[in-house]
UniProtKB/TrEMBL annotation:
The keyword Magnesium does not apply. Keywords: Membrane, Transmembrane, Transmembrane helix. This is MFS transporter, anion:cation symporter (ACS) family. GO terms for molecular function: transmembrane transporter activity. It is a multi-pass membrane protein. It is found in: Membrane. One of its GO terms (cellular component) is membrane. The chain crosses the membrane at residues 12-28, 49-67, 87-112, 169-189, 234-255, 275-297, 309-327, 333-358, 370-391, 397-416. It comes from Acidobacterium capsulatum (strain ATCC 51196 / DSM 11244 / BCRC 80197 / JCM 7670 / NBRC 15755 / NCIMB 13165 / 161). Coiled coil: none annotated. InterPro entries: MFS (IPR011701), MFS_dom (IPR020846), MFS_Na/Anion_cotransporter (IPR050382), MFS_trans_sf (IPR036259).
Length: 429
C-alpha cells in the first residue's frame, strides 16, 4: 500500500520525465546535421553558406507552424497533437537517411520542422496542467535540460556513428529512436483528468497550487491571438527568448565546425570538446533554472524577482560567447563557450515557464506559439548569418551579433515582461 501511494504521488514527475526524454530524442534529430557538416558538404557538393541554409531549413516550417499549433493545442489538446508530432518527426529522419539529393534532404528537414513544431508549446501546456506554480520551473527544466543533454551525449554518439557507419546510418538510427519514443508517448501520456491512477492527494496538490485548469475550452476558446500579440508581457517574453535562441542555435549548428576551422581540432576531438559545454548547461539548467528557482520561491522570496534575476544574469553570462572569438587555444574556447551555454541553460527553464505563468484561461498554447514563432525566426537567422562568417573562417563577427542580441533580450525581460503578471481575460482588460 505504501509503495502504491508513493507511485501515485509521483505521477506528475513521471510526465516530466516523459517530456524530457522526448526533447532529448527530438534534439538528436536537430543536432545530427551539425555533426554531419563535412559529410553533407562533400556528398552534396555545397558551400558553407548553403549548409547554413540547410541547417536552418527545419526552423522555417517550425516557425510557420507555431501559432497554428498553439491554437490547435488549446482546442484539441496535448495528447493527440503529441502523437501526430512524434510520428512525423520520426518519418523525417528516415527520409533524410535515404535522400538521393540536396532537394529531397531539404524537404526532409522541412518535414522535421512540421513534426517538431508542437514539442515545446505542448510541453509548456502539459506542465501547466500537471504542476503547481511552485514546481513549474523544476518541471520545465526536465525537458529544457534534455535539449542540452542531447548535445552533450548525442554529439559524441552521433559522431561515432558517422565515423564508423556514415551519415545515412546516423540519420536512420535517429529515426528508429524517435519511432520508439512515439510508441511510448502514445501509451503513457494522459492529462490529469484522464489519469485513473492519479491519487486524490496529488489532484489536491494541483488544485491548490494553481495548476492550469482543464475543461474550460468547452465554454471559451481562449484569449484572441491579436489581444495576446499586443500584450506587453508576451512581447517581452518573445523578444527575450528569441535572443536566447539565436545564440543557442548558433552553437547547436556551428560549434563543431568553429572548433575544427578556427582551432584546427579534428572531428573526433571536436565532438568531445562540444559535449563538455552542453553537459555544463544540462547541470545549470536543472540545478539553477529548475531546482533553485522553485526552492527560493517556496522559501518566500519574491517569485518574479527570482525569475527575473535568473533570466537576466543567465543571458549576461550567455554574452560570454563574444570572448570565444578571441580564443587562441581549445581550453580558452572551452571556457568562454561553457560560460555562455551554462548561463543560457540556467535561464531557459524560467523562459519556458513564462507562458504557463502569465496566460489567461486556455491560452498557454497560444502564448507558447507566439513566443516560439519569434524564437524560430532567430533559429532561422543564426545558422545562415553564421555561415557567411564561417566562409572566411572568422567567427568573431557572428559571436558579436549574438552578444548584442542577448543585451536586447535582457532589456525586453526587464522593461516589457516586468513582474510577470497574469494577463487579464479580454473582457476584464
Amino acid at each position: 500500500m505504501a509503495f502504491d501511494s508513493a507511485v501515485s504521488h509521483s505521477r506528475r514527475w513521471r510526465i516530466a520525465v516523459l517530456l524530457g526524454i522526448g526533447v532529448l530524442i527530438d534534439f538528436f534529430d536537430r543536432v545530427n546535421i551539425s555533426v554531419s557538416h563535412d559529410s553533407l558538404v562533400h556528398a552534396f557538393h555545397i558551400s558553407d553558406v548553403t549548409f547554413g541554409i540547410l541547417a536552418s531549413a527545419y526552423a522555417w516550417t517550425y516557425a510557420i507552424m507555431q501559432i497554428p499549433v498553439g491554437v490547435m493545442l488549446d482546442r484539441i489538446g496535448v495528447k493527440l497533437i503529441g502523437r501526430v508530432s512524434t510520428l512525423l518527426w520520426s518519418l523525417s529522419s528516415f527520409l533524410a537517411a535515404v535522400a538521393p539529393g540536396i532537394g529531397s534532404f531539404f524537404a526532409a528537414r522541412l518535414l522535421l520542422g512540421v513534426g517538431e513544431a508542437p514539442v515545446f508549446p505542448s510541453n509548456a501546456k502539459a506542465t501547466g496542467y500537471w504542476f503547481p506554480e511552485n514546481e513549474r520551473s523544476f518541471a520545465t527544466s526536465f525537458f529544457d535540460a534534455a535539449a542540452k543533454l542531447a548535445s552533450a551525449i548525442g554529439v559524441p554518439i552521433l559522431g561515432l556513428l558517422l565515423i564508423h557507419f556514415g551519415w545515412r546510418w546516423m540519420f536512420g538510427v535517429s529515426g528508429f529512436i524517435s519511432l520508439a519514443y512515439c510508441a511510448v508517448f502514445w501509451v503513457v501520456y494522459r492529462n490529469p483528468s484522464q489519469d485513473r491512477k492519479l491519487s486524490e492527494q496529488e489532484r489536491r496538490i494541483l488544485r491548490e497550487g494553481n495548476a492550469q485548469p482543464e475543461g474550460v475550452a468547452k465554454t471559451t476558446h481562449g484569449a484572441p491571438l491579436l489581444y495576446l500579440m499586443r500584450n506587453r508581457e508576451v512581447i517581452g517574453a518573445s523578444i527575450g527568448f528569441a535572443a536566447y535562441n539565436w545564440t543557442f542555435y548558433l552553437l547547436l549548428t556551428w560549434l563543431p565546425d568553429y572548433l575544427s576551422k578556427t582551432l584546427h581540432i579534428n572531428l573526433l576531438h571536436s565532438v568531445l570538446y562540444t559535449s563538455v559545454p552542453w553537459a555544463i548547461a544540462t547541470v545549470t539548467d536543472l540545478v539553477i533554472g529548475g531546482w533553485l528557482v522553485d526552492h527560493l520561491v517556496r522559501r518566500g522570496f519574491s517569485a518574479w524577482k527570482v525569475r527575473q534575476t535568473v533570466l537576466c544574469v543567465g543571458m549576461a553570462c550567455g554574452a560570454g560567447i563574444f570572448g570565444a572569438g578571441f580564443a587562441h587555444t581549445p581550453m580558452q574556447a572551452l571556457f568562454w563557450i561553457s560560460l555562455s551555454i551554462g548561463g543560457l541553460g540556467a535561464m531557459a527553464p524560467v523562459g519556458w515557464s513564462i507562458p504557463s505563468l502569465i496566460a489567461p484561461k486556455e491560452s498557454v498554447g497560444r502564448i507558447g506559439g507566439i513566443m516560439n514563432f519569434l524564437t524560430q525566426l532567430a533559429a532561422i537567422g543564426a545558422p545562415i548569418v553564421t555561415g557567411f562568417f564561417a566562409r572566411e573562417h572568422n567567427f568573431k563577427g557572428a559571436f558579436l551579433v549574438a552578444a548584442l542580441l542577448l543585451a536586447i533580450g535582457i532589456a525586453a525581460y526587464l522593461f516589457l515582461l516586468g513582474k510577470m503578471h497574469v494577463i487579464p481575460e479580454p473582457e476584464e482588460a
